[in-house]
Amino acid sequence: MDRNGQLTFSDDPLLLGVNETYELIEKGEFAAAVNKVDSLMSRNPEYPGLTEAYRTAKFWSNRTGEVRRLEKGKQVADFMMTQWEVFKKYAAEKGLSGTNAFKAAMRYVFFTASENYKVAFQGQESTADNFDLLLNLGLCFLTLGEHKRTIETLEYARSSYRSSPRLLAILGEAYYHAQEIPKSLLLFREAFFLNPSEIDMNLLTCKPITDLAAIVAAKKPDAIDAREWIPVYGHTEDMFYVKRQLNSQQVETIKREIYSLEKNFQSMGPEKARGTNIVPRLVNKYLWMLDYYEFQHYDFDNIREIRSRLLQIDKGLFEEYFKRAKNPPR
Q1: Can you give the C-alpha Rg of the chain in angstroms?
Q2: What are the residue boundaries of the structural domains of the chain, listed by start?
Q3: Which of 36, 46, 103, 156 is deepest in the core (most CB within 10 A)?
């Protein structure tokens, strides 16, 4: 309808056509999407969104034949995930990232992958394979914004198979977006304690983690692996404030890990050790024991000894932290 001489969006045939193209991409009807864009370009090749839609539809149309040849289940799912990584690089080069066409393709790819991972999981017998399938399925759900289904899938994986830092981090991300913040923070703390190097930071967009990443970048710009310092600053900035009680076996395990890390630290010397991940890992273990002796099994002497050791390892960080910390020992 013409209003004051201007065409409204709802009556713009090109806009309606572009939106139809996005719907075709999301459904996986890429050849039809390419044809639709061709017809729209013949009318106005400069119309916003057409180039992005064409390149996106063409990329995935070129892979349709391969998908049809593959066996439904893990083969298709893995192919989609692998090609998604290729597409992300292509999208970055061509300026497609974050566009409506990109988002439509993302929904198609991850929905298709999730459906095929479900098929694969139902037909698998190997426990190890099942764990990997469930982890990938959870990642698909997370990418689609299906946080409840992410939680259901990964909690099942965690209870039936094993935990892993990658799984716990993805689960923490899902709980955060599901507004279950305490569970999220606990899972992140556990994940980064187990092994920060296994965590894919590109999957984590929630504010506590992005804030911590920014803090680490500012305060430890020379870190070999910034992920290793996330749990340290999670403690000192009081962002990983949700904690569980340790049992005696876990306490002994942490003590053994501290002993091993200290041996490596001493054999290398402080300067050389700072060029490795030994320092943040040692500090993180000490912080867990500090929590244990402060809040679970109070021991003044151990608290004082750990604080003294932390000051020796990183005086700049812990002098400031202990000044801010509540109820310091006297």
Answers
A1: 25
A2: 2-195, 248-324
A3: 36
Tokens representing residue 82 in the block: 């692998």
Measured in residues, the chain has a length of 330
Look at residue 248 and give its three-state secondary structure: helix
Tens digits of per-residue pLDDT, 44-99?
999 999 999 999 999 999 999 999 999 999 999 999 999 999 999 999 999 999 99
Q: Where are the beta strands (DSSP E) in the chain?
A: 2-3, 6-7
Contact predicate 228/213, CB 8 Å: no
Measured distance CA(286)–CA(160) in Å, rounded: 31
State the SS3 of 34-71: HHHHHHHHCCCCCCCCHHHHHHHHHHHHCCHHHHHHCC
Question: Looking at the domain that runs over 2-195, which CATH code has it been given?
Answer: 1.25.40
Phi, psi of 3 (to 5 degrees): -125, 115
Identity (one letter) of the amino acid at 6? Q
Long-range contacts of 89-97 (CB under 8 A, 24+ apart): 90/59, 91/56, 94/52, 94/55, 95/52, 96/52, 96/55, 96/56
